[in-house]
Amino acid sequence: MQQVRLSLTNYLEENKLRKTPERYAILDAIFDFNGHFTLEELESKMEIKNFRVSRATLYNAIKLFMKLRLVVRHNFQHGTKYEASFRNDNHCHQICTICGKVKELPVAAFAECIEGIKLKRFHKNGFELYIYGICSTCQTKLTRKKTKIKKNTNKKHELQR
Hints:
Helix content: 40-55%
Strand order of the largest sheet: 4-3-5
Oligomer: single chain
Shape: elongated
Order of helices and strands: HHHHEEEEHEH
Mean pLDDT: 87
Strand content: 15-25%
Distance between the termini: 72 Å
Structural class: alpha+beta
Low-confidence stretches: none
Number of helices: 6
């Protein structure tokens, strides 16, 4: 966490921007999350810590942190979420298209493949990968629903005979 704060401090000093307590408090709250969060959840966390900030301050801080690659924004099926990302350039997510559940995947296998790709006149410095599909829970529900429909159809046919 000290490196994250140092990264922010260096940027603010280099660009002659104010080192406000709000920016650091928001950054600390973001890195307290374990995984993805919404702006509403961040706002609630700030209130719990008795550190009230305006929605505009949150948006501006998030925008700054994304520029510094301290935060990543994800546009998931059920809305925008954010995630702390210091030194975490490569990222993979598995997303259920029915319930919207998001699961993080290990990046090692994907990283090898992507590192092997030669891009013309472009230097890679990280990647994000989104794999869309249906989670096992939703797949089970769909199978049960299909089975139930099939049984009801069979019963109707039997009654009509």
